[in-house]
Specification:
It is a single chain. By secondary structure, the chain is an alpha+beta fold. The protein contains five helices and eight strands. Strand 1 and strand 2 form a beta hairpin. It is elongated.
Length: 171
């Protein structure tokens, strides 16, 4: 029988060298491969992404909130003394445009003025009746009317949502 090298195991059955077991190396390689596949899947599918200014669809999906001061208006009821006090915030598409406050200025220079925003909201609020505003459907209709009026009167604002932070109907 031929002498086998020192680092091989000889099988006694056929006189042939038996293959070395490499199960630890295969398991480690499989674990590394599985880990790399998991990181790759996370990188392509689940990682958080910043909204790029070059991507208009992603920029339009972001909403910026513009808080407004409180509104107190008389309602359009035939009875006297009914009023609404509401504080709201506007959800606008993308970044907030520069807004001129109109305080101590002879002329406003921005594309959107706070006076125009407030005037548009006041014109809608004063047409409401107290009975309508007390129902959830009436509040939803008011929100839709406010968005439509703001997009008509102040299109540069890009109003998408109205959030009521205070809503009081005095009857």
């Amino acid at each position: 029988m031929a002498e086998a090298p020192a680092n091989t195991i000889v099988s006694t059955d056929a006189g042939m060298p038996a293959p070395r077991k490499r199960s630890r190396g295969k398991k480690a390689g499989a674990a590394v491969l599985l880990f790399a596949a998991g990181v790759g899947a996370w990188w392509t599918l689940l990682r958080p992404r910043a909204a790029s200014s070059a991507d208009p669809a992603a920029r339009a999906a972001t909403t910026t909130v513009l808080p407004l001061e409180s509104f107190t208006v008389n309602l359009a009821d035939v009875e006297e003394g009914h009023f609404l006090r509401a504080t709201l915030a506007l959800g606008v598409a993308g970044e907030l445009p520069s807004i001129g406050k109109g305080e101590n200025k002879g002329m406003e220079t921005s594309a959107v003025s706070m006076a125009t925003i407030r005037d548009s909201i006041l014109s809608v609020l004063t047409t409401c009746k107290s009975e309508e505003l007390l129902t959830p459907e009436g509040k939803a209709k008011l929100k839709a009317d406010l968005i439509a009026a703001l997009n008509r009167d102040v299109p540069a604002l890009g109003a998408r949502e109205v959030y009521f932070t205070e809503f009081l109907v005095q009857r």
